[in-house]
Amino acid sequence: MIQSERIQALNSREPQQGDYVLYWMQQSQREEFNHALEYAVRTANEHEKPLVVFFGLTGTFPEATERHYTFMLEGLRETAAALRARGIAFSVQRCSPEEGAVAMSRRAAAVVTDRGYLRIQREWRERAAAEMRCPLIQVESDVVVPVDTASWKEEYSAATLRPKIGRLLHEYLVPLERVSLKHNSLYPDIPSEPLDNIPALIMALGVSRDVIPVRWIQGGAARAKELLETFCREMLSRYNELRNEPSLNLQSVMSPYLHFGQISPLYVALKIREHSGGSVDAYIEELVVRRELSMNLVRYNENYDRFTSLPEWAKRTLGDHGYDSREYIYTLEELEQGGTHDPCWNAAQREMVFLGKMHGYMRMYWSKKILEWSPSPEEAFERALYLNNKYELDGRDPNGYAGIAWCFGKHDRAWKERPVFGKVRYMNEAGLRRKFDMEGYIRRVEDAIEKERRG
Ligand SMILES: Cc1cc2nc3c(=O)[nH]c(=O)nc-3n(C[C@H](O)[C@H](O)[C@H](O)COP(=O)(O)OP(=O)(O)OC[C@H]3O[C@@H](n4cnc5c(N)ncnc54)[C@H](O)[C@@H]3O)c2cc1C
Q: How many angstroms separate the CA atoms of 396 and 72, rounded?
């Protein structure tokens, strides 16, 4: 079922004659559980046309590195095969996505696209909608509850969004049916980049090569589903109790797949709901409430990637303590190299740099310490975002912007006032060591890095 709230016309053009219906795939990079794709199949059938799927591959996506491109292209290769098996041509072209989509739309009766929330994704869609001569319809598929339906304004915190999502969940947490395509589109005049040699394609794109791919995890829906199954079988029952314990890594590893739209949050939520127990609710809280709070932030706060996005109380208190003396101040290079006095922080930084995915609990500590050890809160905010987006496989995501902003007071409340942090929530190494097996965490990270090096 595709609820009408997921569907939005981005312009008011009339359908053209056209050779095909086009699905401009951008955010939802998958064949399965993709509302935009199923809507496009339905539209193609209504027009008695074949469906062509297009993906514009730009080498200049902000802050994307070889690590990100490799993971994304592994996923797209799998998506291409899955579409082919359904009789749908998949055209990957090296171009700016919106320009490529406009060019492809000249032969289209109508164009369907998916929804992305970041500034660049919105701008691409706006430009394409203005330039296309046929309809451009956006179908939202990478959230469980459509963002504008959940709330029409920027939410204060998870506590304010939770009841709104809770009231709507039963309407949207329903499976998506596959629609059979009437007209095969596998004819030969749609050009596409070959996806069999990913390193060569990345080279041709001129992508920054200073962050190398990781080998312990591969992109693609098949691997995402395998990991999810393992998580449900072996870890879910202990998730509520132990997900914060850094030495155990009791997490589902869905975030890189969700970031690239290789797996649908709806699919993940439905799989999790096949189980029972307190951990199911805890997982749904993270996947739906917390994750969709991030989408809410990026959707309604124009400054989501800037210090100015923070609530007034947080900016004021951090400003009041901006000149407090700091016991340690590190340069960006010292932080990047994991060269601080704190072995727990260094391990977290190394986990991110060498493995591309830091443990969820450590992300909070990591970002709080950047605030403590930087010359100013504004610079700390920029540094945390820069490092997060450069090295995390799931970086450059609404969750990353919200996660870092949270460490600076967003979606949180004021706490007891102290130096440097002011009233922003504080974390320290002694607290970490009291609650968790930090030596076990450091060992786990070093073992995983060693394994990664050996390949
Ligand atoms: C400073 C900081 C930076 C972060 N940067 C990113 C980032 O760049 N990209 C990113 O996807 N997440 C980020 N997070 C959120 C969270 O840490 C990760 O989503 C989570 O660790 C991903 O691992 P997982 O999929 O194995 O998590 P699981 O624990 O298995 O959770 C399942 C899913 O729930 C969602 N989720 C879990 N925790 C959170 C959370 N705190 N906020 C929002 N959604 C959550 C994610 O979509 C996740 O994939 C950040 C958090 C903080 C505090």
A: 13
